[in-house]
Specification:
This protein has about 130 residues and is of the alpha/beta class. It has one domain: NADH:ubiquinone oxidoreductase Nqo5 subunit (Beta Polymerase, domain 2, 2-Layer Sandwich), CATH 3.30.460.80. The chain is about 15% helix and about 30% strand. The protein is built from 2 helices and 6 strands, in the order βαββββαβ. A 4-stranded mixed β-sheet has the order 1-4-3-2, with helices on one face. A two-stranded parallel sheet has the order 5-6. It is globular, with a radius of gyration of 15 Å.
């Protein structure tokens, strides 16, 4: 019986400094960007990027523990990533360097600045 490719899911932890080179590699392999998201974890924020090719997912997670989180944008490699990265900026306070289309913290109209950043201090994540 052949292995079902649609059940193969790979999740790899990578460093923030390796993110762009890993993304360039999966792009060269023919993967498309599936999604990107962030979530609070015990000691900071976890950012997850998912890529798909032939029903196989490759997921890369980056854990950020900095009070002022920063990542290299992948929007220069995958243009639609600007949507996910602007969302993560507004909700988690993650700064994306070289973001192709940067809404400057105004992608969403929200009542509190960076409401889901566990490391921010002050009202609504404002320092």
């Amino acid at each position: 019986m052949a292995e079902r490719k649609d059940l193969i899911t790979d999740i790899s932890a990578i460093s923030a400094s390796d993110l762009l080179s890993v993304v360039l590699d999966v792009k060269a392999e023919g993967y498309r960007l599936g999604q990107a998201c962030a979530t609070k974890i015990e000691d900071g924020i976890e950012v997850l990027y998912s890529f798909e090719k032939d029903n196989v997912l490759k997921n890369f997670k980056v854990n950020i523990t900095d009070v002022s989180p920063e990542l290299q944008s992948i929007s220069g490699v995958y243009w639609p990533a600007f949507i996910y990265e602007n969302e993560m900026h507004d909700l988690f306070g993650i700064t994306f360097k070289n973001l192709a289309l940067d809404y400057g913290g105004h992608f969403f109209k929200i009542a509190q600045k960076t409401p889901w950043n566990p490391n921010a201090t002050g009202k609504g994540g404002e320092e």
